[in-house]
Amino acid sequence: MARTTTMRLLELMVLREDIHPVLMYLGKFGDFQFQQNFEEAGESDYENNNPAKEMFNELQNVRAALDLEDLTSYKGSIQLPTDEDKLESRKIIDRVEELHQKELLAAEEFKNVTSAYNEAVAFSNLKMSYSQLESLSFLTLRIGKIDGDKFESLKEKTGGRAIIVSLGEDKSRILAAASKKARFLLDSQLREAGFVEIQVPEDFKGIPDDMIESLLQKKLECSAALEEIKVERKNFALTHKDEIYRLLQEFSVESQVYAVENKLQSTEFVYRITGWIPAYESHEFMKAVDELTKGRTSIREYLPGEVPSVINGEEKVPVQLKHGKLISNFERLIFSYGSPLYGTVDPTPLVAVFFTILFGIMFGDAGQGLVFLIAGILMSLKKMKLAGWEKFGPIFICIGISSTIMGILTGEFFAKEIMPLEKFSYWVTGLFGEPRSQILPMMPTGSGESIKRMFMFFGFTIAVGFIINTSGIIINIINNFALGRKGKAVFGKNGLSGAIFFWYIVLMCIRIALLKIGPAFYDWIIIGTALVLTAFCEPLERLIDGERPVLENGILSAFIGALVEIIEVLSGYISNTVSFLRVGAFALSHAVLSYIISMMMSIAPFAGAVVIGIVGNAVIIVLEGMIVAIQVVRLQYYEFFSKFFNETGREFKPFAFVYKS
């Protein structure tokens, strides 16, 4: 079986003059993971002495001010900024800041002139001297501003006790009049409306028309000036767009280089870099760094067993799983549960096979399977975007193929039986006996033969579960031997003794069912011996591994532990096996749903049948597709991974430049 990728630890002693080119190479190389002590450094260290990050942030402000969209990833080749780039960046920043200030001033002036113009238009309606009006002994006058939306409610609240007159079209400037007796009520209602009084000169009689015209002209001039600055800003953005994006990428890279540099151990002249790299890339990497620095960098290579922090258990060697394009898409299923330990079996190929088979068994429909297949092809070709699921295109292709094959066996095409599939089924089944319309009928018809076939199918799903459970046990045995844990490999619940117990019972049941040979005395000897060895796994493990004392907590504790272990072994293997009945149950439920849709289509008129077919199949594809996927993942996690994932490792996460983390 394939193992996790062999790793090496490299130690680089880099001169200060070469540190930026070397870190630049590491980021582009994208397959070098800094050692654990580096990863655990505080995030605040990234902020120290990082002029590139300051420049990057300023350029981001420039981009935002020019209404340019942000980048989501690097475009084209990336490099470190030169001195000329830094000067150019400063010029752009200063120019945009100048445009921004001009726009702010112009906007403020336009706002003030507009406000003055609106005031003038509002008071142009007031032709009588304000002092004359106010001198009336029986009248209380108030002139000021309110929120225009509150004008009607203010009139309603004051009722007939006050007169509210709008002095402008937007009703934000008013003249309120009331009798002297009602002045307290008027003032109270005005305060609630947010009234702001305007001080009016005593001889004020309104705004001359020539002044209003002058203010209008000024308003138009300010509006034109503001629009001119906006056009200038847009033109600047258009002509400098590519340059700004290039500089953003360069300073993004340099800021990450500085961030790493700030965390490295260093003296006045030398930096020390330590990190993990796949062994197959080690030689070419060292050669490239040597050429980059013209032989000025000292490099030492260590095997994992030579690293002190690994030997004493302080650090785990990072785990990389190396696969082709298809199998690599299933890696996230592994790492979402946990990383395998370094040097153990890589379960990804088995996960890919089991996931594909289980999904196909539970979701058998040739038409619906073709939908998954076509969607997977389109996602793989980047022709279809599905909320970030494009990277799982190959997985959709796999489950599409398996679902289509299962659909051909069950004779279903978009929840219906179609003539081409029926002819194919008649031809295939005719080769082995009586022809029938389905190679693998899923819907029970009530006949004895139908019920028998259904139970045979459930037996088949249990057999699939047996293979998956067995694979997990074998991986666990191999892993424990590889890690030097001979006791667990031989006597553990999922070790050799537990496997013999499980396998022998299964074989005995098959023998009884097929050959009609009942249990013999030697059967119980073998089963009992395997079960006892598994029950006393803990003291036996300590004995084989050389740990003392063997009975750590006494003989009574050992017997109690053995009893608990027997219960766990029996319940565990029974539940692990029976759990795969759900595969048959979901396959049957899929057939029932398809049958219901088919029946509804058959009794509906043509138009209704088309709608029912489209909606029904869409519901099955989306809803049941999600449920089946969840069940497949659950079976992988709890029935397969649980056999050998007793301890998780550390995922290999190499350093690489990322524009937006």
Structure, described:
Residues 42-46 have low confidence and may be disordered. This protein has 661 residues and is α+β, with helices and mostly antiparallel strands. Helices cover 62% and strands 8% of the residues. Strand 4 and strand 5 (173-179) form a beta hairpin. The longest helix is centred in the middle third of the chain and has 53 residues, at 209-261. The chain has helices at 19-29, 36-39, 51-65, 83-123, 130-134, 151-158, 183-192, 209-261, 279-292, 308-311, 325-328, 331-337, 348-362, 366-380, 393-410, 419-432, 448-482, 486-491, 496-515, 521-535, 537-544, 555-578, 581-603, 606-644, and strands at 7-15, 33-34, 139-145, 162-166, 173-179, 196-197, 265-266, 270-278, 298-302, 318-319, 650-651. It has 24 helices and eleven strands. The strands form three sheets. Strands 1, 2, 7, 8 and 9 form a five-stranded antiparallel beta sheet that branches. A four-stranded antiparallel beta sheet has the order 4-5-3-6, sandwiched between helices. Strands 10-11 form a two-stranded parallel ribbon. The chain starts with 6 loop residues before the first strand and ends in a 10-residue tail after the last strand. Helix 17 runs parallel beside helix 24 and helix 20 packs across helix 22.
